[in-house]
Amino acid sequence: MGCSVWAVGNYAGWGDRFSAVGTRLVAEVGVEGFDVLDVATGHGPTAIAAARAGGRVTGLDITPELLAIARRRAHEAGVRVDWVEADMTAMPFPDRSFDRVLSTFGAMAAPDHRGMATELVRLCRPGGVIASTAWSLDSVYSKIGGIVGGLLAGDDEDDAEPGPMPTDWADPDAVRSIFAGLPVTVETVARTVTVRWPSIEALIDVLPEFGPLAGAVEALRAAGTWDAARTALAEMLAAESSSSTELVAEVPYAVTIATR
Ligand SMILES: C[S@@+](CC[C@H](N)C(=O)[O-])C[C@H]1O[C@@H](n2cnc3c(N)ncnc32)[C@H](O)[C@@H]1O
């Protein structure tokens, strides 16, 4: 299978800076003694937090390179997780297999939001909980994507049809319509997580190696606009940071809790 874009660079190093989100999510929904699925587990931070908290955990992802890191980390932590390489849009489990269906910054990226929500609900037992997180539109991560994507789109930007966005999963109205008609009650809660980097340059320097953006950065380089992007990114990040030495950002995200 494989999903090469997420295997490029060091996603685990990137994601470790906000792994507190998964730990907090696990504490919020409670997993002890429950069958737990972590959808798009990546390098496994949320799955491993759930296993530490006493869940019987399965972590699913499409990228074998990240699952290998997850497997190693679970072993080092002394916890058991079943790791499954599969596509989250059609998961290889029977209906109603799990009491908790979690996803930190994973399900939000499915191209078909409604189809993804239906799949999450399918796997959740009655009385169980689906809990998913997504970056808000005004988060530093959305702004990075906006700057890079905006420069890449150039003059064509106005012609582009806006499709479903991962940030829809952080918009309470959009979330309500994504889950409309499914047998769940849905609540969306706004949160922030503190993310630290040694410096603004340290973050910008990894972007050419960051899987989902690597191709865009390469295209900007080819077009001679990567330096302009770096300048715009540095200005935006300086405005976001509460520190003048490191980069310290309070990053907004939303938690969607759907109770079946
Ligand atoms: C932003 S990362 C989130 C990883 C982890 N949950 C975290 O909190 O850091 C997105 C993950 O989605 C996975 N992914 C993308 N498309 C997928 C698909 N169709 N099926 C399963 N996993 C997918 C990627 O491999 C990557 O691990």
Automatic annotation (TrEMBL):
Keyword Repeat (UniProt): no
GO biological process: methylation
Molecular function in Gene Ontology: methyltransferase activity
Pfam (any one): Methyltransf_25
SUPFAM superfamilies cross-referenced by the UniProt entry: S-adenosyl-L-methionine-dependent methyltransferases
Keywords: Methyltransferase, Transferase
Entry-linked InterPro entries: Methyltransf_25 (IPR041698), SAM-dependent_MTases_sf (IPR029063)
Ranges for domain Methyltransferase: 36-128
UniProt KW Methyltransferase keyword: yes
Record's protein name: Methyltransferase family protein
Species in which this protein is naturally found: Pseudonocardia hierapolitana
